[in-house]
Design a protein that fits this description.
single chain; mainly alpha; 2 helices
């Protein structure tokens, strides 16, 4: 697997990020897209996208 070297950047919540993230996760749980405990899973709620290309990226991590 290829290693990536992203620049050091500390993401921060934007104007609507927290509100949209909460609504999206809630709806995704209702539709069985995300697990029931998704609001507590760090790799889902984090603002930083994973470096592992096999792991999904959430819209707020772009």
């Amino acid at each position: 697997m290829r290693k990536t070297a992203y620049p050091n950047y500390a993401p921060a919540l934007g104007y609507m990020t927290e509100k949209i993230r909460h609504k999206y996760i809630t709806k995704a749980i209702e539709c069985n897209i995300l697990p029931f405990e998704a609001h507590r899973i760090e790799q889902i709620i984090s603002l930083s996208a994973p470096n592992d290309p096999t792991k999904p990226i959430q819209i707020w991590q772009l």
